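Structure first, sequence second, as always.
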């Protein structure tokens, strides 16, 4: 029986696509293991998947860590410099025996030790990327928070874009020194960690819709855009009686959410959303997470419902409009729902995702430094009147449903095996 090891680092947004793919491979008869932080043991085992603990064991809801890595300009640098690269030697050591006994292992964007493990164990390796910006294309350059000041240069020529990207990579070199030393220790040359170190051969899974990120001339030949892979352990459950009752009492509401990570330390955002809902004179559901539900639940009215969480697959299609932070998992669920959206991006890939959503005609965005109640209310009213966006969203939904990303990704893994 074929043994497949999945490993990832990050939040639930990073974990859900590998879990969805792992469940599909398990359904097809393969023996599947997920090797991630100890914090997710119960979550994974309750889904019926085999779990192995590996470092780094970064607490996903630690507010000090969240505030650091979600800082708009320096968050990505802090994440890599303080948490990811220093932990790669431990990650390598923990994964080595697990990879050695597997027939295939599948990693994700922050697993920079994965190509080293493939080389030293001889086990076939597939990297599974979640958002197009991870491919750093000069033909479709990523929109990054730290380079807002020269964003106007993008799009002149691919050659100029490549020069800018290489300049960015050089500025990152000092952050990755510990990773480069680890490569040398196992007998591998130094590489650009953000391109070559991510590109698995002969298969690089790109777990997004081709509508969201079309193939570019400088993508590696091994890259395959499969369509989004969805997973929610509660997707099979009905919405709560409280939510169903609220939905039944009037017109479809606005739905506000901040995903699984930002919501844990987002009091100001939640209060802004609540004020925007009131000033727009519309019904609204606002997800506030476990950290804030006790504070906000007593404030529920006939027009605003504060909830901890609800499966996006069930909630989003019942919305009139979705307002969210722009994480790729939330964006994918919003696109699948067929409802228009306003993205309020702050960090990481959120701004790039927001630009893509606007280009697709699925909604609009408000950058973090421009976000206020008046601007948000204005965009809500404008977007709800834009019939072309509503029709585009219906088309996008039909295409995403047709792609069936999890099936195509699983087929590709089985072909490789």
């Amino acid at each position: 029986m074929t043994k497949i090891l999945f490993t990832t680092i990050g939040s639930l947004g990073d974990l859900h696509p590998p879990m969805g793919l792992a469940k599909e491979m398990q359904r097809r008869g393969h023996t599947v293991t997920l090797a991630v932080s100890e914090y997710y043991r119960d979550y994974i085992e309750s889904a019926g998947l085999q779990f192995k603990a590996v470092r780094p064991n970064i607490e996903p809801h630690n507010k000090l860590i969240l505030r650091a890595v979600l800082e708009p300009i320096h968050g990505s640098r802090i994440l890599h410099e303080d948490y990811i690269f220093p932990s790669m030697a431990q990650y390598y050591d923990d994964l080595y025996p697990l990879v050695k006994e597997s027939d295939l292992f599948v990693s994700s964007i922050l697993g920079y030790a994965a190509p080293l493990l493939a080389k030293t164990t001889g086990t076939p390796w597939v990297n599974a990327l979640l958002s197009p910006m991870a491919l750093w294309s000069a033909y479709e350059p990523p929109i990054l928070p730290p380079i807002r000041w020269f964003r106007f240069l993008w799009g002149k020529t691919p050659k100029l874009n490549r020069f800018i990207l290489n300049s960015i990579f050089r500025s990152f070199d000092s952050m990755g020194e510990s990773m480069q030393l680890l490569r040398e220790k196992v007998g591998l040359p130094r590489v650009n960690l953000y391109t070559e170190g991510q590109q698995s051969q002969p298969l690089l899974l790109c777990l997004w819709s081709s509508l969201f990120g079309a193939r570019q001339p400088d993508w590696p030949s091994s890259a395959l855009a499969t369509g989004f892979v969805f997973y929610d352990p509660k997707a099979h459950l009905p919405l709560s009686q409280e939510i169903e009752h609220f939905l039944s009492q009037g017109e479809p509401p606005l739905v506000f959410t901040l995903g699984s990570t930002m919501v844990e330390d987002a009091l100001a955002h939640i209060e802004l959303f609540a004020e925007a809902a009131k000033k727009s004179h519309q019904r609204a559901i606002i997800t506030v997470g476990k950290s804030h539900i006790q504070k906000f639940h007593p404030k529920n009215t006939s027009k605003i419902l504060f909830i901890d969480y609800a499966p996006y697959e069930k909630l989003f299609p019942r919305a009139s409009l979705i307002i969210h932070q722009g994480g790729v998992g939330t964006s994918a669920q919003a696109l699948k729902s067929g409802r228009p959206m306003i993205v309020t991006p702050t960090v990481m890939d959120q701004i790039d995702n927001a630009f893509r959503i606007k280009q697709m005609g699925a909604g609009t965005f408000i950058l973090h430094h421009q976000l206020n109640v008046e601007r948000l209310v204005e965009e809500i009213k404008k977007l709800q009147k834009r019939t072309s966006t509503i029709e585009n969203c219906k088309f996008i939904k039909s295409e995403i449903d047709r792609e069936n990303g999890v099936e195509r990704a699983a087929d590709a893994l089985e072909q490789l095996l």
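Margin note: The chain has a mean pLDDT of 89.
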